[in-house]
């Protein structure tokens, strides 16, 4: 089994984790956290980043104990084949749901920005076919996509310098007026945007230098946190409270005040370009979920990819309305929070307890 | 398999495009104006650019009546063979009566909701939007929309006007503790429309106006880098003498006129403990015109001249603050400043307005004459 694992360098982990984290969430996150923590939303993000940094460390400590195993295999080792498969099935369902939430989120955005009238299932089909094609290429192709996506889109950060002209610093004051519980609610709501670091559980076996991976995954997590922090702070300073509470995608609305002499309406470019930002998300999630199907049902990974894609396509016929989507994102983010913010700690302790028991006997 | 797959993908991807838009078939609206007819019906007027070379006229204006902005647009479509698009919409004009009586926020909802309209379109107020758009004097521009856009854009770029685009308007309308302002465009027969004054809003309703020159006091405290505009003072000679400003030679007349140009400024609103607001500002200026041409003797007399100018400005600022207080509006954003203090961060809009009406204002502008041009 080890023979067909293709290795990549440790620094690639930075690109994979970072691009999996950044996706549809960042466009709407300033509003979602603002609704909870008001002008202290940025603190929730910092706290969330700090927490994820800790979780990443715990994840790597666990993975180091079971070298060359991904989470699915660890589950089977820890809980046995039957119980492990049940948990793995649950994780696969989560990844399928997360994958669909990204697809429908992007489709909703692009339909609002200029493509109104197109069928949701048609757009889903296009995105799915692209993803299937990429994932069929194997892990190295996905790693390449993540790298390219990062290089091709990171310059969008510099577009933000134009909104900087009309920001008002008093809007972020007074600092620390939100109560701790409001801040924690903000952390909870930030999960949808921050999720993506869990890919570490699944890409770990593919990385060549295991000792360097902690550094690069921490780098990725903090880079993402800073990026989200930056966009949230700018949004808070740029929009008045009521405005920020109204806009579904504050970042896109903010970019709509960006203009160049040769492009009057830059947000249309940004929205179209965003497909490159979400593409790595789709690829990694499809890859991980198909890997899970392979592990549970002993199918070929290729068949897993097709089965999952068909499930997503069928879903796209039903969940398409704004209100439904919102509910769906909320569910995914809640499940994601418990699964990847809380569960890794339990898993780590279970593994410690189990190894202690075994070493005694 | 793979080849078929790539073919399928490319077919799908190339087919996903919105219906084609031929330039000649487009009716590109550059300006839209709304007039109030009665209670619930409005008249919308748009100016469309013509692209057909054979036509002599470069633009067409059409009007329609309706209750919502999009209904008006639907009815406008009935009057033209062109496909009306709002991607190039640059200015929205509102009738003065409508802004005073009904407010304009409800009309602007569609501008935010509709993604084909950008956040950078200008808003302005005029006496009768239909007449303004139908005015035929628009310099060398192809239509009224382009002319008014250039007029406002030039002012915005040179920072002579307070920001008046859609985003700025919303951002101060929805912010607690600041009220928006918009330019007023005057329209007279035989001349091109021009910027006349600046409208003051309470919420989304217009309640008064101030002259363009007076906006310098608003800019001083709301923007960090703007062009304040030249300031001219007419000072009686006695005042100069009384203050002890010594000149190299004596002035013959009894008036002394000076125009200064602000180079840099820094404005700060300070809220002191005893419920008073200090409006501190320092402006460094260069003198650009003196009538009669005189030379100041020494450093002290320049300092004294600075003091005279400061007093003058402080008095003007005090007056304008009283005007604002009488109208119960706060375009400078004092309320916002108060709200940013921890103690008052939870006050709601009504309490803030009530508090605002009781505040003591202490204008404190400092002027520093930095340059005097090529002559002393």
Largest sheet of chain A, in brief, is: none
The third-level CATH topology of chain A is Amino acid/polyamine transporter I
| Largest interface, C-beta closer than 8 angstroms, per-chain residues | A-B, 33 and 34 residues
Order of helices and strands of chain B: HEEEHEEHHEHHHEEEHEHEEHHHE
What does this entry look like structurally?
The complex is a heterodimer of chains A (361) and B (376). Chain A has one domain (8-350): Amino acid/polyamine transporter I, CATH 1.20.1740. Chain A is 74% helix and 0% strand. Chain A is built from 15 helices and no strands. Chain A is globular. The mean pLDDT of chain A is 89. Chain B has 376 residues and is an alpha/beta fold. Chain B has two domains: 23-212, no CATH class; 231-371, Nutrient germinant receptor protein C, domain 3 (GMP Synthetase, Chain A, domain 3, 2-Layer Sandwich), CATH 3.30.300. In chain B, the strands form two sheets. In chain B, strands 1, 2, 3, 4, 5, 6, 7, 8 and 9 form a nine-stranded mixed sheet that branches. In chain B, strands 10-11-12-13 form a four-stranded mixed sheet. Chains A and B meet through helix 4, helix 5 and helix 11 of A and helix 1, helix 7 and helix 11 of B.
């Amino acid at each position: 089994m080890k023979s067909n694992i293709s290795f990549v360098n440790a620094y690639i982990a930075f690109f994979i984790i970072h691009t999996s984290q950044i996706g549809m969430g960042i466009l709407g996150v300033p509003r979602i956290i603002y609704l909870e923590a008001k002008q202290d939303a940025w603190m929730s993000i910092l706290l969330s980043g700090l927490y994820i940094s800790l979780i990443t460390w715990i994840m790597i400590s666990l993975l180091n104990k079971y070298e060359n195993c991904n989470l699915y295999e660890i589950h089977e080792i820890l809980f046995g084949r039957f119980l492990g498969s049940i948990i793995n099935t649950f994780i696969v369902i989560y990844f399928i749901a997360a994958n669909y939430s990204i697809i429908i989120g992007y489709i909703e955005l692009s339909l609002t920005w200029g493509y109104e009238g197109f069928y949701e299932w048609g757009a889903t089909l296009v995105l799915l076919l692209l993803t299937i094609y990429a994932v069929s290429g194997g892990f190295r192709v996905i790693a390449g996509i993540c790298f390219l996506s990062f290089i091709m889109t990171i310059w969008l950060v510099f577009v933000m310098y134009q909104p900087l002209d009309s920001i008002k610093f008093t809007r972020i004051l007074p600092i620390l007026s939100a109560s701790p519980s409001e801040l924690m609610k903000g952390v909870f709501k930030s999960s949808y945007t921050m999720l993506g670091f869990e890919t570490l559980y699944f890409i770990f076996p593919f990385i060549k230098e295991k000792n360097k991976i902690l550094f690069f995954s921490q780098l990725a997590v903090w880079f993402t946190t800073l990026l989200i922090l930056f966009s949230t702070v700018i949004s808070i300073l740029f929009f008045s409270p009521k405005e920020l509470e109204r806009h579904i995608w504050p970042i896109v609305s903010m970019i709509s005040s960006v203009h160049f002499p040769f492009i009057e309406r830059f947000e249309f470019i940004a929205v179209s370009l965003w497909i490159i930002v979400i593409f790595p998300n789709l690829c990694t999630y499809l890859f991980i979920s198909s890997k899970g199907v392979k592990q549970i049902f002993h199918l070929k990974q290729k068949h897993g990819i097709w089965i999952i894609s068909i499930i997503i396509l069928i879903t796209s016929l039903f969940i398409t309305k704004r209100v439904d989507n919102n509910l769906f994102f909320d569910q995914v983010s809640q499940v994601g929070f418990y699964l990847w913010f809380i569960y890794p700690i339990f898993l780590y302790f279970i593994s410690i307890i189990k190894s202690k028991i075994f070493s005694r006997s | 398999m793979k080849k078929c797959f790539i073919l399928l993908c490319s077919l799908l991807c190339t087919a996903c495009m919105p219906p084609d838009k031929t330039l000649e078939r487009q009716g590109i609206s550059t300006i839209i104006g709304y007039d109030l007819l009665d209670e619930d019906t409005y008249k919308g007027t748009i100016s469309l650019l013509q692209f057909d070379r054979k036509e002599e006229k470069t633009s067409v204006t059409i009007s329609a009546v309706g209750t919502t902005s999009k209904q008006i647009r639907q009815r406008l479509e009935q009057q033209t063979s062109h496909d009306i698009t709002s991607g190039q919409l640059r200015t929205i004009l509102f009738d003065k009566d409508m802004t005073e009586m009904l407010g304009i926020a409800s009309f602007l909802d569609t501008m935010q909701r509709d993604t084909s309209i950008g956040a950078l379109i200008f808003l302005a107020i005029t006496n009768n939007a239909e007449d303004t758009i139908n005015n035929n004097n628009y310099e060398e521009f192809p239509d009224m929309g382009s002319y008014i856009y250039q007029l406002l854009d030039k002012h915005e770029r040179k920072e002579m006007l307070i920001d008046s685009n859609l985003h700025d308007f919303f951002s101060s309308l929805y912010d607690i503790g600041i009220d928006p302002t918009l330019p007023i465009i005057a329209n007279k027969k035989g001349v091109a429309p021009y910027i006349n004054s600046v409208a003051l809003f309470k919420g989304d309703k217009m309640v008064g106006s101030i002259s363009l020159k007076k906006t310098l006091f608003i800019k001083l405290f709301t923007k960090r880098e703007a062009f304040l505009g030249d300031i001219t003072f007419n000072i009686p000679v006695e005042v100069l003498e009384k203050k002890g400003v010594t000149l190299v030679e004596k002035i013959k007349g009894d008036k002394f006129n000076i125009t200064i140009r602000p180079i840099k400024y820094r404005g700060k609103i300070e809220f002191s403990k005893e419920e008073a607001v200090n409006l501190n500002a320092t402006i460094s200026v260069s003198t650009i015109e003196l009538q009669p041409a005189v030379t100041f003797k020494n450093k002290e007399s320049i300092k004294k001249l600075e003091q005279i100018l400061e007093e003058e400005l402080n008095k003007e600022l005090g007056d304008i603050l009283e005007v604002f207080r009488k109208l119960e509006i706060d375009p400078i954003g004092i309320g916002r400043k108060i709200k940013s203090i921890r103690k008052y961060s939870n006050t709601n809009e009504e309490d803030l307005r009530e508090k605002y009406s009781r505040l003591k204002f202490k204008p404190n502008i400092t002027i520093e004459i930095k340059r005097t041009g090529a002559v002393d």
